[in-house]
């Protein structure tokens, strides 16, 4: 949500920032509704004050026996009651329109966010590892089928497209990946593990920006719960409606959860394999900070996500997203893209964003310094640390041998109970 006072102070700057997102100027519409609503509120206050004053005069008129004056005053009060009801209704109506308009506008890009309309405007920040571009390798779907450990047919019969059944050693490797990631983030990077709800209410998704604009990307139950598209929703909502002590921050939270997405906007994309699924596991990172801490915390979060790829020895690059390619709630985003040999290209495996106070305003999450009266909005940050399924794809393709077996990365050996290679005759 956006700060109305900031828009009032500099509407041109607001429109300029919206323009970086590809939006038409909207400040005039916002300020028009704001002015009309404030006018209704002023008229309401005046009518209430007038009613109160007349009510006092009615008592005096009755006390002096002036029945005619009392009746006239009571008629005026009845008229004011109608006016109060009208202005109250108008205030509420304009408030809904104003909030709906503001709720549909994405976060404003940070000043150092690159301009651009889509992924072609993204800027490479750095690379790690040397991708093998010498030859195409067998992709993860063929590998999984050859091993008999990746079953799309059974998944399709019970659930439809964009689901998979993992079996045996491959299921263990996927589980090991998630455990490894959550252990690194909690034991080495200082995040607190959370086991959050996977079903949430409308207000939770509004708070993190998925509603109202992106309802079609979500799964909804018949009794009005929503399946989380990312644990960011649950983790960020742990501070909703709270005033935190500044000494508590930064607050670092993480969770390994299933995530559920309809992929409504990805029709026809990545229909083969497990790159883009309706259900997948992901380790999510969320930080709650003061405004002064957020920039340093953002860089730290990116480092924490990169550390997983380095430990798994998977080549990747870090991309700074342009304004037109960022998510709805982000003001600055880095994507980590892992090299996939079968595609001979980099694919996203983590997205880390700082949201400023955009989500905090929707969540009503604030921070107060000891000894000070006022509270201010916190800053929120989120990132993947990492997407487990996409990491599994990268490992399968990077660690395969000529016979189609898959070596287990050294970092995962402690989680595999002695299994160092996946395959029919694995040892």
Task: Please give a structural write-up.
- With 427 residues, this protein is α+β, with helices and mostly antiparallel strands.
- It has helices at residues 4-9, 11-20, 27-63, 67-103, 140-147, 152-159, 168-188, 202-208, 232-236, 294-311, 358-363, 388-398; strands at 123-128, 150-151, 165-166, 192-193, 199-200, 219-220, 226-227, 243-245, 251-260, 279-289, 316-320, 332-340, 345-354, 366-368, 376-377, 379-387, 406-407, 421-422.
- The protein folds into two domains: 4-103, Serine-tRNA synthetase, tRNA binding domain (Helix Hairpins), CATH 1.10.287; 119-422, 2-Layer Sandwich (BirA Bifunctional Protein, domain 2).
- Helix content is 41%, strand content 20%.
- Strands 1-11-12-13-16-10-9-4 form an eight-stranded mixed beta sheet. Strands 5-7-6 form a three-stranded antiparallel beta sheet.
- Helix 3 (27-63) runs antiparallel to helix 4 and helix 7 (168-188) crosses helix 12.
- It starts with a helix and ends in a 5-residue tail after the last strand.
- The model has no long low-confidence stretch (mean pLDDT 93).
Question: In a few lines, what is going on in this structure?
Answer:
The chain has helices spanning 4-9, 11-20, 27-63, 67-103, 140-147, 152-159, 168-188, 202-208, 232-236, 294-311, 358-363, 388-398; strands at residues 123-128, 150-151, 165-166, 192-193, 199-200, 219-220, 226-227, 243-245, 251-260, 279-289, 316-320, 332-340, 345-354, 366-368, 376-377, 379-387, 406-407, 421-422.
């Amino acid at each position: 949500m956006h700060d109305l006072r900031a828009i009032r102070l500099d509407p041109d700057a607001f429109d300029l920032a919206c323009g970086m997102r590809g939006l038409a100027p909207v400040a005039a519409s916002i300020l028009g509704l704001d002015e009309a609503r404030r006018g209704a509120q002023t008229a309401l206050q005046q009518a209430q004050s007038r009613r109160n004053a007349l009510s006092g005069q009615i008592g005096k008129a009755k006390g002096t026996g002036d029945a005619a004056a009392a009746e006239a005053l009571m008629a005026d009060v009845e008229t004011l009651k109608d006016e109060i009801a009208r202005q109250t209704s108008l205030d509420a109506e304009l408030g809904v329109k104003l909030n709906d308009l503001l709720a549909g506008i994405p976060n404003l890009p940070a000043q150092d966010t690159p301009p651009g309309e889509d992924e072609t405007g993204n800027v490479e920040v750095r690379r790690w590892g040397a991708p093998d571009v010498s030859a195409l390798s067998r992709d993860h779907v063929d590998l999984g089928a050859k091993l008999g450990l990746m079953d799309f047919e059974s998944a399709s019969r019970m659930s439809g497209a964009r689901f998979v059944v993992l079996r045996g050693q491959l299921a263990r490797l996927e589980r090991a990946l998630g455990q490894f990631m959550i252990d690194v983030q909690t034991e080495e990077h200082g995040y607190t593990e959370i086991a959050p709800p996977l079903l949430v209410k409308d207000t939770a998704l509004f708070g993190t920006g998925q509603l109202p604009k992106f309802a079609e990307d979500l799964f909804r139950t018949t009794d009005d719960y929503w399946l989380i598209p990312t644990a960011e929703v649950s983790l960020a909502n742990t501070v909703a409606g709270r005033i935190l002590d500044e000494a508590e921050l930064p607050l670092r939270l993480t969770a390994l959860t299933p995530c559920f997405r309809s992929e409504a906007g990805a029709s026809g994309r990545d229909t083969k394999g497990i790159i883009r699924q309706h259900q997948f596991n992901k380790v999510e990172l969320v930080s709650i900070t003061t405004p002064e801490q957020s920039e340093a915390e953002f860089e730290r979060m990116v480092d924490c996500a990169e550390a997983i790829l380095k430990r798994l020895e998977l080549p990747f690059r870090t991309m700074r997203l342009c304004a037109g390619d960022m998510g709805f709630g982000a003001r600055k985003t880095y994507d980590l893209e892992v090299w996939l040999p079968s595609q001979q290209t980099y694919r996203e495996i983590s997205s880390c964003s700082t949201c400023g106070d955009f989500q905090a305003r929707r969540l009503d999450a604030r921070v107060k310094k000891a000894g000070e009266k006022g509270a201010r909005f916190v800053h929120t940050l989120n990132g993947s640390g990492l997407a487990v399924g996409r990491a599994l794809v990268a490992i399968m393709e990077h660690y395969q041998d000529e016979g189609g077996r898959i070596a287990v990365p050294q970092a995962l050996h402690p989680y595999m109970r002695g299994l160092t290679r996946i395959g029919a005759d694995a040892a």
